[in-house]
Amino acid sequence: MIQTLKKPRASEDKLAVYYDRTWEQFKHIQKGLEGSPGVRLTFYGGVVEVFMPGQPHEIFKKVIASLLEAFFLHWRIRVVPTGSVTQEQEGVASAQADESYCFGDAKPVPDLSIEVIFTSGSATKLKRYQALGVPEVWFWEDGLFTLHRLGENGYTRIYKSQIPELTELDFDLLTQYVLAGETDWLEAVLTFKEAISR
What we know:
Layout: E1 14-18, H1 23-32, E2 40-44, E3 47-52, H2 55-74, E4 79-81, E5 86-89, E6 93-96, E7 99-103, E8 112-116, H3 122-132, E9 136-141, E10 144-151, E11 154-158, H4 171-181, H5 185-197
Parallel strand pairs: 8-9
Antiparallel strand pairs: 1-3, 2-3, 2-6, 4-7, 5-6, 7-8, 9-10, 10-11
Helix pairs in contact: 2-4, 2-5, 4-5
């Protein structure tokens, strides 16, 4: 008898949402989850989200980071990669981006936060980042980047980064290699490096 083995499914994102919570309750949950690997917490407007990213989410996060860091290295851009550091405005908002970067020197609030979205909406995330004062936010969702720049009246959709160090970044090219990197990370990063060197 021949036994066929089922290919294991990649783990999916898990999200638990709690409403009508105070900042103190959020901090209590945060303390209780200290040391839990891979768990991310956010707070805004009385809503606490407990997020555990799945494999596809983490693949895209790492591919985007690798491609951006190849770009930074090629153009010798001074950057502080702050990853999923907790960004907080006491009593108002807390977030952990998938990736974040400060350009030049480290700052209390990153210049750029990037989120890969599979399970939760971008509108709430933008409000949270606005409360935190993050100048530029990028979302990767359904195979596309959407870029947002913070102004006096909140975020505005933009189509090219307004961070001076990133004005030469071609988002069509970046998108192409993020999609390629889902199946072959090494080839995507190497060919992206060749493409930006031309």
